[in-house]
Each structure stands twice: as structure tokens, then as C-alpha cells.
Amino acid sequence: MTGIDQRLMQLLELARADGPPDVDLTEAIMTRIARTQVQVALWERQWMWMAGLSAAVAAIVAIAAIPYWQATPDPLAEVMEAVSWVIQ
Questions:
Q1: 37-55 burial by CB neighbour count: b if 16+ within 10 A, else e?
Q2: Using one digit for the tens of pLDDT, what is the confidence trace for 21-77?
Q3: pLDDT(13) > 80
Q4: What backbone phi and psi angles, to 5 degrees, belong to 14?
Q5: CA 55/CA 76 separation, integer angstroms
Q6: Residue 65 near residue 72 (C-beta atoms within 8 A)
Q7: Tens digit of each residue's pLDDT (9 = 90 or more) over 35-48
Q8: How far is C-alpha 80 from the chain's CA centre?
Q9: Out of 2-6, 23-27, 37-41, 84-88, which region has the weakest mean confidence (pLDDT)?
Q10: Is residue 75 within 8 Å of 69, Cβ to Cβ?
């Protein structure tokens, strides 16, 4: 073994012999985190409502469009036909 390997082995033995710290702050920290309330700014609330409403409208439109999408024999071909007509 080289000098570095021996030093690492000594450190490994010291680490194995070392125990956990005497002070446990977990409960104090978790209590402090639980007491902290997140303050959301007014402009953030407006964006949250806008995102929620947009998602609801998108879901309603998707649900309404599914029967029409399934009724066409090949939906992608229908779209490509419309796009090619516009390009011409």
C-alpha cells in the first residue's frame, strides 16, 4: 500500500468509530418549517387562476373534440389535406 492508501484506511477506521452527533435538531427544524407559511403575491395568484382556468378550458375542448377526431378515418390525412390546400 502506498502512503495515500494507508491514510485513507486510517480515516476509514476513524469514520467507523465515530458516532452520530449528540445534538438532534430535526424536530426543531421540522417545527419551524411547518410553522412557516408561504406568502403568495397577488400577481402570482392571478397567474395561478389563469393557468387553472386555461387547463380547465383545454380539457373541455379536448373532451369535445375527441368524438370528431375519432370519426375521421385518418385524422392526420385530413389535416395534411387541409394544409396542402392552403399551401397551393
A1: eeeeeeeeeeeeeeeeeee
A2: 778 888 888 888 888 777 777 888 899 999 999 999 999 999 998 887 777 777 677
A3: yes
A4: -65, -40
A5: 24
A6: no
A7: 877 777 788 889 99
A8: 35
A9: 84-88
A10: yes
Distance CA 19, CA 21 (A): 7
Burial state string for 66-84 with b = 16 or more CB within 10 A and e = fewer than 16: eeeeeeeeeeeeeeeeeee
Judged against a pLDDT cut of 70, whether residue 1 lies above it is answered with no
CB-CB contact of 11 with 19 (8 Å) = no
Q: CA 78, CA 19: separation in Å to the nearest integer?
A: 70
Q: Which 8-state DSSP code applies to residue 72?
A: S
Give the three-state DSSP class for 10.
Answer: helix
